[in-house]
TrEMBL record:
It comes from Nocardioides daphniae. GO terms for molecular function: DNA binding; DNA-binding transcription factor activity. The lineage of its organism: Bacteria, Bacillati, Actinomycetota, Actinomycetes, Propionibacteriales. Keywords: DNA-binding, Transcription, Transcription regulation. The keyword Mitochondrion does not apply. Residues 9-77 form the HTH gntR-type domain. This is GntR family transcriptional regulator.
Length: 113
């Protein structure tokens, strides 16, 4: 995992996106453990709160579960979760490009045909 500290995308979002992509691509599978928050924060040169926020968002999306001392484990994707994650990733990227909500929806409508 790599974080672009000078990039437009916030570091927590970079971590969230990379873990999400690893799950969708099968690099991380259900049952895999994510590194502890402090370990990953140190490895990436981030504040622990930054990594904790990424993990919390991944948990809210249903991709991971935090199990106390057992750590954070990958749950995987169901169809609905995969669709939500893909949509959320698209919206984040579109907003970084400066698109309005109407423009985002127009692009989706065009893609749907």
């Amino acid at each position: 995992m790599v974080v672009d500290h000078g990039g437009e995308e916030p570091p927590f979002e970079q971590v969230r996106r990379q873990v999400s992509e690893a799950v969708t691509q099968g690099v991380l599978v259900p049952g895999d453990k994510l590194p502890p928050v402090r370990t990953l924060a140190t490895d990436l040169g981030l504040a622990t709160n930054t990594v904790a926020r990424a993990y919390k968002e991944l948990e809210s999306a249903g991709l991971v579960a935090t199990r106390g001392r057992a750590g954070t484990v990958v749950l995987g994707f169901g169809t609905e979760q995969a669709a939500r994650a893909a949509t959320a990733a698209y919206v984040v990227q579109a907003r970084h490009l400066g698109l309005s909500d109407d423009e985002v929806l127009a692009h989706v409508r065009r893609a749907l045909g």
